[in-house]
Amino acid sequence: MTRIIALFATLSLLVACGETRLDEAPEDLGAFQARIVHVYTEKALQWPMSRSADHSEWTDPIKSALETRLRRYEGGQQYDVAVTLEGFMLAPAGVPVLFSPKSVVVVNVFVYDVEQERFLAKKHQMEIFESTTGESALVGSGHARSKQEQIQGLAVNIADKVEEWMAEQHREQGWFAPRDSAEDQADPAAAAPAG
Question: Structure pTM?
Answer without folding.
Answer: 0.78
